[in-house]
Amino acid sequence: xxxxxxxxxxxxxxxxxxxxxxxxxxxxxxxxxxxxxxxxxxxxxxxxxxxxxxxxxxxxxxxxxxxxxxxxxxxxxxxxxxxxxxxxxxxxxxxxxxxxxxxxxxxxxxxxxxxxxxxxxxxxxxxxxxxxxxxxxxxxxxxxxxxxxxxxxxxxxxxxxxxxxxxxxxxxxxxxxxxxxxxxxxxxxxxxxxxxxxxxxxxxxxxxxxxxxxxxxxxxxxxxxxxxxxxxxxxxxxxxxxxxxxxxxxxxxxxxxxxxxxxxxxxxxxxxxxxxxxxxxxxxxxxxxxxxxxxxxxxxxxxxxxxxxxxxxxxxxxxxxxxxxxxxxxxxxxxxxxxxxxxxxxxxxxxxxxxxxxxxxxxxxxxxxxxxxxxxxxxxxxxxxxxxxxxxxxxxxxxxxxxxxxxxxxxxxxxxxxxxxxxxxxxxxxxxxxxxxxxxxxxxxxxxxxxxxxxxxxxx
Length: 460
What we know:
mainly beta; three-stranded antiparallel sheet; 1 helix; 1% helix; 17-stranded antiparallel sheet
């Protein structure tokens, strides 16, 4: 993809500096060229399929690998190659004012507004893989071709707030801000006749209140903030159950409502000259997560699909519409914290820098369940006699990562130079970043393993 962006700003002050203003124009263009091939050869665990390919799917039992643990299967031509092109043009006008109120010293108010306009053009095509060779596969005529699709979205968002310098070491503030994420096209949507691949914008109203403090002549910094966000039309990824030509239907869908709230604490303390420690803590939770979707489209991460399997092959377009309530959000850990220390000391012509950080991540859902859903209670369509089932949830347990670094900083010809070594995830902790169960198999993406590397930084 290629991205071009530019921003022009006019910044100044009036009334002897008591009124500050910012105004400007923003423009960006993104061009995306996306391709994906779902080859016909899959390596499957032999034990799970009795030494043969998946029953009911055309194919053949290929050779096993040397260990005998896997077999190789050729899947039908509904597995395809895709070429997709997307162009996004975005521009905005914005302005903000900050005014120091004359009747209360240290009290400042601010207000801002931004107009956003985005236009997206989209085309895609799916091609069958026409032969059954592992190497040198060829493509046939398009199974699905969409072109000339274009849509645009615009919105006006606001922000406002106040901050008050209570004392030299204590600042209190409140901020309200709105956010806008434009709609778009589901790049992997493969069934436009039944499922529109266009999705709607996402809007958020956010409130934040907090304190910024400085103690012990600036040696101790402590900042505390609380936030509350109300998300409307939240965009989530879903994969439609059942593989039909030209392939799995992956969509971005809009939920109805989600509320997220939490507290954040940031501290920094100079223990000794050159020795600093910092501690960060975050807690968050959510409520009132609701959506109205077909029963196989829970608005959460990929994998929340139930209708096609539950209702015995009923057309996806006729799956019943259901309202889901009290859902769990994905990738929202309740508690996170980190502790870090760094030490600087003069050594020769420069400084040696040592640092280490421990990061703790709480349990979170990669694919969330629904704690209470109407779908679990609703009867299936008449005549099918199949009980409703839920999606397959995936959870990542809590984990802790350890990082460290050592470097030496000096100057050559009045230019700064930094050389050093960095280590990340030093305990080589294994943790999942993504997962999509597909029957006895599926996909899984792991977090980065232990990393050790060198760094060189030069000031030109």
